[in-house]
Amino acid sequence: MTLTTTRALDELKQVSAELFDLGRIAELLEWDQETMMPPKGVPWRAEQLATLKGILHERLTAPRVGDLLKQVEDEGGQLSDVDAAIVREMRRAYDREVKLPAELVRELARATSEALATWRRARAEASFALFADDLARVVELKRQVAEHVGYRAEPYDALLDEYEPGMTAAELETMFANLRAETVALLDEIRRAPRQVDRSVFEREYDLDAQWRFGQEVLRWIGYDFEAGRQDKSTHPFCTHFGTGDVRITTRLHPRDLGQALFGSMHEGGHAMYEQGIGPSVQRSVIGSGVSLGVHESQSRLWENCVGRSRAFWEYALPRARELFPSQLADADVDTVWRAANKVEPSFIRVEADEVTYNLHIALRFEVERKILRREVETKDLPTLWNESMTQMLGITPANDAEGVLQDIHWASGLVGYFPTYSLGNLYAAQIWAAIGRDLPDRDARIAAGDFGPILAWLRDRIHQHGGTYLPADLIERATGERPNARYLSAYLRAKYAAVYGFAAS
Amino acid sequence: MTLTTTRALDELKQVSAELFDLGRIAELLEWDQETMMPPKGVPWRAEQLATLKGILHERLTAPRVGDLLKQVEDEGGQLSDVDAAIVREMRRAYDREVKLPAELVRELARATSEALATWRRARAEASFALFADDLARVVELKRQVAEHVGYRAEPYDALLDEYEPGMTAAELETMFANLRAETVALLDEIRRAPRQVDRSVFEREYDLDAQWRFGQEVLRWIGYDFEAGRQDKSTHPFCTHFGTGDVRITTRLHPRDLGQALFGSMHEGGHAMYEQGIGPSVQRSVIGSGVSLGVHESQSRLWENCVGRSRAFWEYALPRARELFPSQLADADVDTVWRAANKVEPSFIRVEADEVTYNLHIALRFEVERKILRREVETKDLPTLWNESMTQMLGITPANDAEGVLQDIHWASGLVGYFPTYSLGNLYAAQIWAAIGRDLPDRDARIAAGDFGPILAWLRDRIHQHGGTYLPADLIERATGERPNARYLSAYLRAKYAAVYGFAAS
Q1: What are residue B239's DSSP bridge partners?
Q2: Domain for residue B161, yes or no?
């Protein structure tokens, strides 16, 4: 590399670090809005986010950045994996962002900040009508984003690409068609199974403070570092990070559901440990976070489901849970609690869905979002479409909008085209879980002994430390030895639910 | 005004709004660091603040801003008060900031963010040695700021001017000399007074949760809007604002001092109500906050001292306090509690000092800061200088650094030359309080009836709504009919303490 190119690379990395900082600052403003901000702060926060995101846009799309990228790309053949990835991600972000007018970026920041406040109110009152206008405004702006960014087949692709680079709506359509068919078949077997599962042990009266302590204790077991994070309460659980040293999670508690806060905490803890495990060589750069939403979700789902809903986990966790909840768990044995944690049952709330029906929730959102973007449905008619789809796919109909179309925060945040990454996460998680099983033959015995360290160490080594160095499919291949594929998810679900419900796995 | 000038003014106001937003964002990062952030977040937050303040600097000092200012100043004779003030403040900030290298601004942001974390640790361990290097770094950077900004007489002036425009160290020297002489005389009278005051009623065991609720209730009485703010706990109480709709305060609680959290809450509440009362015409601009630190402090001291430590206040507050603390206050009457709230006694902690000795605490800091900047003392020798000055001025010697040189957060934040504004605040507060007394002859009867609204309304009308439209001395004159002067503070202190201690006022 010539000296000029070395200097260009250094300057590019300086911009990359600054963009990382600005992105983290925006996340802090949003975290604060969800957890701490008083109600009258809304319009002020909206302006702050608009200003900040306007500046982020302006700095990323500065002509100087284009010149630097060109210089490095033309001459920089000998880059390390990390430097090459920084250049690749700067290029991707630059190409995407130069197509967006600054005013659209600011307007979207303002609109989503306000929509978040409206959504929270609408959800509390279970009234979609309150939220309809704000959502229409966000969707219209996202449509404009798609048009500016451009796409080959349909606007959905332009939005999806931001969350899972290279993925298309058409590919997802096939994936969901297969998942749906398999899910329907599996649900049928479960319905006809010799043993049925009783979830009532989870649905007793559980003291909220004790639940809170239990969740924090489990987070410590699995390796979440409270010196580099904190847990708070919010309407919708989430994880956010302001650098590797400050990765925060939130949860919500239900007085008659032990599972909600517990599995929610393990889920967000999984996301958080990914960010806490980003390696020093990629920190504070555009590749200094989880590589894609799909891979991110694989980490949360792995801890929530593969670990938290395993029989081995409850061998370890039940005695401790019984100390906190002696009367509620007096009569419960490991099998009862483990099966209860895995009861399959159509339900309204995605984040509380069992692993089998979960992907149907995502398939539904994928179809609804596509229809919105294609203008095949008007915003105001969304509750009707939602409820009809729920009835058709899951055989149940929400009683109100809070347990229907209003349940998720995503659209209010402008996250349209994001949901499918949840099913991709399940797919990756199953493949990773199988690989861990091969590398750690005593994996389940260790879990049963409360020794979660080797699993986290495996994930740190194969996934976390790399941040965005490798593209998702490449990272999964490096970690597991195979390109991502759905076979592991199918096998995992069949084997698990055969064991839970007592039917033959093959 | 020509069309070009109108457009230049509009653009300047756009920049002013954006600078306001960026300033508020920086405040949020700092608030979060003090109240919420986990320990390993420190280096990340430091980088975020450095990046953000670097951008703030860059945008304020853009050549375009200089051009716009010139254009408007050359032609803009017919500006409204508000527009003229925006131009005046942009000019002041621009002239100051163009003299500072961007790297110095970023370095100071980084250094203070780190010093804050170190100070908190050092204070907890009562060990100045832990903090000495961080402080030396901050002081050195502030010295560089003073050199870049420039000054006529001494470096102190360059720093002071940022907090109280136009004020000089020489003027303060005179003010403090007078205040010291009067204070010494008053202390002598108090020492010889026929009645001595017993503070023990405040020093019983007060439940922390009940104290917290009492503080919040008092804040509601006086008009702090919890819909536009929140209260949290922190090592050092402070007020910060992210726009008129989001003004937050913190407090700290002492299990054996009813006064600490109560008067601290009224103090920070006074600051907060100023920011909550900024009028729509100046909001979201460079004049959209309190005009100076001195005027800001007048608002906090007025509510803390003129209201909270008045006999009328305790006529109203004592019955309610007795409901929360029945055993502790069973034997206390209004006079006992009121006098206890006003006991004069040399003490170590500034924020807990009585109104008479308070200004000696400030005089001490003013002298120490001047010596630091003049290099008449080395950072490592500060504890010695501090303790000797305390002994000389107040006749008491701190037992450790936590109750001495480490007690205040200011230097860690880079606030050098800031403390004198506290005494200016006392001076303004007494003058304002006298004016309110003239305009509301039944002021004290209203306080005794819990009717604080007219006082807040007066302050909203005469002070708060204007934000930074008028310079401090002009604002005080508009509000009270007189230029700021120390006569009211002298008269107020003599009259009050004569009543408390039972000697003749004149």
Answers
A1: B249
A2: no
What are the distances in angstroms from CA B57 to CA A363, B108, B109, B229, B458? Answer: 48, 12, 11, 28, 37
User: So what's the pLDDT on residue B1?
Assistant: 75
Tell whether B315 and B433 lie within a shared domain: yes
- Residue A229 near chain B (CB below 8 Å): yes
Predicted structure pTM score: 0.90
* Chain-chain contact of B21 with A246 (C-beta, under 8 angstroms): no
Q: Which of B303, B312, B334 is nearest to B201 (CA)?
A: B334
Predicted confidence (pLDDT) per residue in A79-89, tens digit: 999 999 999 99
CA distance B284 to chain A (A): 8
- Residue B271 in domain: yes
Instruction: Please tell me whether residue B278 adopts helix, strand or coil conformation.
Output: coil
Please name the residue ranges forming H helices in B36-78.
42-60, 63-75
* CATH code at position A386: 1.10.1370.30
B227 interface with A at CB cutoff 8 Å: yes
Residues of B in contact with A246 (CB under 8 A): 37-38, 40-41, 44-45
- Please indicate, yes or no, whether residues B212 and B326 belong to a single structural domain of this protein: yes
Given A97, A114, A164, A268, which residue is catalytic? A268
Strands in B134-237 per DSSP E: 231-233
Q: How far away is chain A from the Cα of B502, in angstroms, using its nearest Cα?
A: 46
Residue A76 confidence (pLDDT) above 70: no
Q: Which residue of A has its CA nearest to B229?
A: A38
ipTM: 0.89
A280 lies within 8 A of chain B by CB = no
A41, B17: Cβ pair inside 8 Å?
Answer: no
Residue A164 covered by a domain = no
A31 min Cα distance to partner chain B (Å):
11
Whether residues A44 and B28 touch (CB distance < 8 A) is answered with no
Closest partner residue to B28 (CB to CB) among A32, A243, A246 is A32
Q: Does the pLDDT value for residue B76 go beyond 70?
A: no
- With DSSP H G I counted as helix, E B as strand and the rest as coil, what are the percentages for chain A, rounded to 5? 70, 5, 30
Q: Is the pLDDT of residue B351 over 90?
A: no
Residue A344 buriedness (CB in 10 A; 0-12 / 13-18 / 19+): buried
What distance in Å separates the CA atoms of residue B403 and residue B398, rounded to the nearest whole number?
A: 6
As a whole number of angstroms, the distance between CA B393 and CA B177 comes to 12
Distance CA B462, CA B457 (A): 9
Total domains in the fold of chain A: 2
A355 in catalytic set? no
User: Testing the interface with A: which of B48, B64, B220 to mutate, by most A Cβ within 10 A?
Assistant: B48
The answer to whether residue B370 sits within a structural domain is: yes
- Provide CB contacts within 8 A for B416, sequence distance 6+: B138, B139, B142, B159, B369, B372, B373, B410
Same domain for B116 and B196? no
Angstrom distance (rounded) from CA A344 to CA A187: 8
User: If you count them, how many residues does chain A have?
Assistant: 506
> At which of A85, A115, A150 does a domain end?
A150
Chain B closest-CA separation from residue A38 CA (Å): 5
Alpha-helical regions (H) of B277-419: 293-301, 311-324, 326-329, 334-340, 355-373, 382-394
Interface touch B245/A40, C-beta < 8 Å: yes
Q: Quote the DSSP letter at residue A241.
A: E
Interface residue B242 vs chain A (CB under 8 A): yes
Name the residue range of residue A52's domain. Answer: 3-150
B28 & B76 share domain: yes
Say whether both B316 and B190 belong to one domain: yes
Q: Report the SS3 class of residue B83.
A: helix
CA–CA separation, B418 and B413 (whole Å): 11
Q: What is the 8-class DSSP label of residue B307?
A: I
